[in-house]
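Shipment paperwork, digital attachment
Item: protein structure file
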Amino acid sequence: MDYATLLQLLDSTLRLGVPLIFACIAGLYSERSGIFDIGLEGKMLVAAMCSGTFAFYSGSAWIGLMAGVAGSLVFALIHGVTSITFRGNQLISGVALNFVASGITVLTAQSLFGQGGRTPPLTGAARFNEITLPFAEALRPFPVIGPLYAEVISGHSILVYAAFAVVALTWWVLFRTRYGLRLRAVGENPAAVDTAGVSVKGLRFSAVLITGVLCGFAGAYMATALQAGFGKEMTAGRGYIALAALIFAKWRPWPALWACLLFGFFQALALRPDIVEAVVRVKVPVPALDALPYVLTVLVLAGFVGKAIPPRAGGEPYVKER
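Attachment content:
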């Protein structure tokens, strides 16, 4: 595999890893607060549908992004009310939201556009276009570093760079602010937080809403940047892969980034069977390559990458002591 091919693979890894990064960090906030959220998939799907629809009608990717965030926040709020206010089963709530999203997105898109559950293709300002970073072309002739900067680091939409900024911001919020300390504490021992006079419900709702915002970014990216519109079941299990990456990273921001890029790398490999065949010297069936990210997900969830201990209060509704 030559250097140019490697750069193409790395470029695809970044593009495919971005929705996983947004969704994984979204789940990090929720689960660090003690609210398990299997509904990441559903929020992403709803966000993608809302984003694609509003971007098409308005001709603006930014309006599509806001619509995607709004749609995801509605589902996040439903999950929060079910899990926090009414103390329902968090896993069942998330699964139910996934089923609802799977049906309602296709039904809505079909009713609006009549194209088999798809939106019409987005063009021009209705999509987030690529950004060329400063000096990208000037540095291209330089060996190794030039092509890496020009072809892998530069040339992405603004949401790609936003995903990496979100990881850094999340690390700072969780480990350098009072809010982050309280959020981590409420996921481990909500009674102690309550005793200190801090609202457990307030913290958990804030985390759930942050989850909704970031899932909105993930879905909007898929519909207005990675692809040109919404399509039926376009998330293709990425919400579950993001959860696996979160477990793989043991609920920490920077390891979560690398875990998502690893999953993105396997997805990129599935799109380039020629690279795999050149390395292993054996013809590999395309369906087998497509299954690689999901096989890795199963291995992570089965515990083959080491024991991951979730927040101690995760999945348990908090009942205030009288």
